[in-house]
Amino acid sequence: MADITAIILTMNEEADIAFCINSIKDLTRRIVVVDSGSSDKTVEIAKSLGADVYYNEFVNYATQFNWGLDNTGIDTLWALRIDADERFTPELCREIEEECSKHASDTVNGMRVNQRVFFLNRWLKHGDVYPFQKLLIFKVGIGRIENRNIDEHTILSSGDSILLKHDAEHYAIKNIHGWIHKHNWYATRAAMDYFEQMDDKTATDVAAGTMQIKRKQRALYYKFPKFLRPFALFIHRYVIKGGFLDGKPGFIYHIMLNFWYRELIDAKIYEHEVMKAEFGKTGALK
User: Fold this and answer.
1) Confidence band (pLDDT; 50, 70, 90) for 205?
2) Are residues 167 and 205 in the same domain?
3) pLDDT per residue over 31-79, tens digit each?
4) I need a surface site. Which of 27, 138, 189, 235 has the fewest CB within 10 A?
């Protein structure tokens, strides 16, 4: 067991929360769940598995996670950021435990993990989906989540991060209906973030690794014309980058994420430009 506290943000995650907690319960000294007001059995399940559950009203992921860091009495050296639909393999847990002990007193203050995205029961290995790195483990007091509406990244105030050898698993979909609902919510936050970044002339990109590359790609993407750029992105990732090699799940994933979802974001950007209406509070995903 490592000297580490896991923080999981939840809102109606009864289908996934037990799998997530059970995958890390032998790794972490403590598991904290910050719930946004679940109406299902998420809280009951989390408590039954030994997690400490707190409630906080949801504003955005960054605010919610940082609230968890600041208000749940964390006294471990390390913190772990994990979502309810993510799972750690036993091999990854053993590696994290070893690296936490090894780097307890040096300048390695964070650990990055590659994620395997599973969509409709298939690991998507192509189309720019894998590998995707996230900084998931960091020393308490040094790591924070940057304040963005979407695409938020863990930032270290000092020191370095290392890339771990073993992968985490991300189960990206429960069903198509839920996926569409979630990405409609995401699209509103992505449109909000687009305008905020455009307005903030002093903003600097402090992301690193894969996230930094993807942000540069996204900045380039937004230079292309609205409504045409999703089609170009789909061709790039599905055809040129080999997304078609992942069969029917790969086709559905790329047509929905890189075409439909991106068209939806552009539609919301256009709606905001034409209607001049302010974005309302999106609240927690329900």
Assistant:
1) very low
2) no
3) 999 999 999 999 999 999 999 999 999 988 999 999 999 999 999 999 9
4) 235
220 and 140 inside one domain: no
Instruction: Please indicate, yes or no, whether the overall pTM of this predicted structure exceeds 0.70.
Output: yes
Domain range for residue 8?
4-171
Domain termination residue (choose one: 171, 202, 222): 171
Please say if the pLDDT value at position 256 is more than 50. yes
Give yes or no: residues 167 and 220 share one domain: no
Q: Of 145, 171, 197, which residue is a domain's last? A: 171
**Tokens of residue 62, six digits:** 């960054």
User: What span, in angstroms and rounded, lies between the C-alpha atoms of 34 and 51?
Assistant: 10
Q: Is residue 119 part of a domain?
A: yes
Q: For residue range 91-110, what is the model confidence (pLDDT) as tens digits?
A: 999 999 999 999 999 999 99
Q: What tokens appear for 143 in the block? A: 């790591």
**Overall number of domains in the chain:** 2
> Does residue 98 belong to any structural domain of this protein?
yes
Q: Contact, 150 vs 193, CB < 8 A?
A: yes
Residues 150 and 68 in one domain: yes
